[in-house]
Design goal:
D-Amino Acid Oxidase, Chain A, domain 2; FAD/NAD(P)-binding domain; 34% helix; alpha/beta; single chain; 457 residues; eight-stranded mixed β-sheet
């Protein structure tokens, strides 16, 4: 009978990282992955990761000539709807081939002692006589296998196959993501018609279109675009983007498509013998959809708590794992919840309002956009300037009353969510009441998919 301390479903970046860290703690770890090793992470070729994040989490390093590394850049800017009034930022970014980096992370986990089984499809959970998880079943080559363990981690991505298979009374939300809860992303790899003397190494982002022009490998650059609702909506916005933003003449060489969650995280990540993380737990940065390093904040907490609980052969009950919820929701959890609530309503503005706010450096300001994610705090002067220009915008007709109301409502709800997540219960006993109040607050936030930038241009 096969036995492990930890079984992880999904061997992409989230699963590999958790496997590595738990194996380093001395636990036996098994990763099961539905894809072949050569087909890992098939959606995109190039992806970007902050160099500081790679250092912070101690991720495997890459270097020029290793077949994984593609480029580095640090110059970027967020632009208005018409590509004007850029708000620059400086963040060292590493571009890599995602499939090859996932393979590297697999090997990194194995190096620490983890085992991986490829082409293994998760079939279900195994429970002990008390109704608590103590293993999984999976199918490989047409044969169903059972492996026993103390902790199961769901790192299966958007399908969340483990979380969604839990019993209804297991204490974990089982919601499935609808098209409105998914950010559909299209990458167009392009070559410029007029060749440049140096390689394109910068990134520009158009917030209104949720689109970006960034470096690439094997082509001159890539145009990325995302939208909730489906790939049809992405194409609809892209047609308007082409007419509105003046890019250098280019031709598209290939197109890739992928998805990332855009939904609030589950109110609880843990239960008896279970933890959810990565895309299966909807851990992505609300401002850009990046999830690779965003998830590692939760994972580091989970490693710290679970390893302590399981150190002497103990079973990781919901009560013993609960501090994972508390610690995460009091830190990154509250920040992401607040930002998602804010963005869900603040995007509800016209192109005219977007240009006005960018031009006058309010709301979409150099200070906020240039330092996004770095704990920037606004001063009394910042708030006063914002208020003055919003009044000017209303008087001149650049901002509509409905747009102002959306911003005010978003700020209020965002603040309430921050305060509510700070009061996340210390134990499972207070969870139901807390979750009920959270539902009321989330119902007041807007969804990105409910605002059509094309129809409201």
């Amino acid at each position: 009978m096969k036995k492990y301390d930890v079984v992880i479903v999904g061997a992409s970046t989230a699963g590999s990282y958790f496997a590595r860290r738990m194996a380093e703690k001395g636990f036996s770890v098994l990763l099961i992955e539905k894809y072949k090793r050569e087909n890992l992470s098939p959606a995109y070729d190039i992806f970007h990761m902050g160099k500081d994040d790679m250092e912070l989490f101690g991720l495997p390093k890459v270097k020029e000539g290793d077949g994984i590394y593609a480029f580095e850049f640090s110059e970027s800017a967020i632009c208005s709807v018409f590509g004007n009034h850029p708000k620059p930022s400086s963040l060292a970014v590493v571009g890599m081939h995602k499939h090859k980096y996932c393979v590297l992370m697999n090997d990194w986990a194995v190096e620490a002692g983890a085992d991986i089984i490829y082409e293994a499809t998760f079939k279900g959970l195994v429970y002990n006589e008390c109704g608590k998880i103590n293993g999984v079943t999976y199918e490989k080559d047409g044969v169903e296998e059972t492996v026993f363990c103390r902790l199961v981690a769901d790192c299966s991505g958007i399908p969340a196959v483990v979380r969604r298979s839990l019993p209804d009374d297991y204490g974990i939300e089982k919601f499935a993501l609808t098209p409105k809860d998914i950010f559909y992303v299209t990458l167009r790899y392009i070559d410029f018609e007029e060749k440049r003397s140096s390689r394109y190494l910068r990134s520009d982002f158009w917030l209104y279109f949720k689109s970006w022009l960034a470096p690439s490998e094997g082509s001159d650059a890539l145009i990325g675009m995302g939208a909730c609702g489906g790939f049809e909506q992405v194409e609809k916005v892209y047609k308007l983007f082409e007419k509105t933003v003046r890019l250098p003449a280019h031709k598209v060489t290939r197109i890739e498509k992928g998805m990332t969650p855009y939904h609030r995280a589950p109110y609880s990540f843990v239960s008896d013998g279970f933890v959810a993380m990565g895309d299966a737990a909807c851990i992505t940065k609300p401002n850009c959809g990046e999830g690779c390093t965003a998830s590692l904040v939760l994972e580091d907490i989970a490693v710290d708590v679970a390893s302590a609980v399981m150190a002497d052969g103990g079973y990781p009950t919901k009560e013993k794992l609960w501090s994972i919820n508390k610690r995460y929701n009091n830190t990154q959890g509250k920040e992401f919840a607040s930002l998602m609530a804010l963005l869900g309503s603040i995007i509800r503005h016209s192109a005219k309002a977007n240009e006005f706010l960018f031009k006058n450096d309010v709301v979409f300001s150099r200070k906020l956009l240039g330092g996004m994610g770095n704990g920037i705090e606004l001063s009394v002067g910042d708030y006063a300037k914002t208020l003055i220009y919003i009044i000017i915008g209303l008087v001149t007709g650049n901002i509509r009353p409905a747009e102002l109301k959306a911003v005010i409502d978003a700020i209020v709800t965002s603040g309430k969510l921050t305060a509510h997540y700070e009061k996340y219960p210390e134990t499972p006993e207070g969870y139901e009441a807390w979750a009920k109040e959270a539902e009321i607050l989330w119902a007041k936030t807007g969804k990105v998919a409910e605002w059509d930038s094309v129809d409201n241009f």
